[in-house]
Write a structure and sequence with these properties.
Elements lengths: L1 H19 L20 H23 L3 H23 L4 H20 L4 H28 L1
Length: about 150
């Protein structure tokens, strides 16, 4: 269950970072886009690329990935980000979107793990656990503020 939560958290981080970097006023959390009603395709693509670069830098350093692993894992996450966007744009219920994102997350994790050696898999699990702990702390702070 923790694995699923972590993976879903990572997916949402990618999605949120794409939108937060695309013309939204960062000084006001309830703001509207500073340009048109929606970010342009170029802005979205740029944000996706930046998020992917950050993720790959972290994974490459933390897991000591070789060049082939970097290329393969980068492609897996690039596909994942695009599929997330498609899922989130659908006119489905939040529950069905959540299930689809969960399934995509599990599939992505399985594909990535297949490319890692045992030591890298262990480090990958630790990274996921750290991400979950950070997310739990943020939730606790929000609850205290309310």
């Amino acid at each position: 269950m923790k694995r699923v939560k972590i993976t879903i958290a990572l997916l949402f981080v990618f999605t949120l970072s794409a939108f937060s970097q695309n013309g939204y006023n960062r000084n006001n959390s309830m703001s509207t886009p500073t340009q048109n009603n929606e970010p342009t395709k170029e802005e979205i693509e740029k944000a996706r690329e930046e998020s992917l670069n950050k993720l790959m830098t972290r994974l490459t350093e933390d897991l000591n990935l070789d060049a082939l692993q970097v290329v393969a894992i980068r492609q897996i996450y690039a596909d994942n980000i695009k599929k997330q966007g498609i899922i989130l744009k659908k006119e489905d219920s939040n529950e069905s979107k959540s299930e689809a994102l969960k399934s995509l997350s599990e599939s992505t994790e399985t594909r990535v793990l297949a490319l890692l050696n045992p030591q890298q898999k262990e480090k990958f699990e630790l990274l996921k656990n750290e991400a979950a702990i950070g997310k739990d702390k943020k939730k606790d702070k929000k609850k205290k503020k309310e």
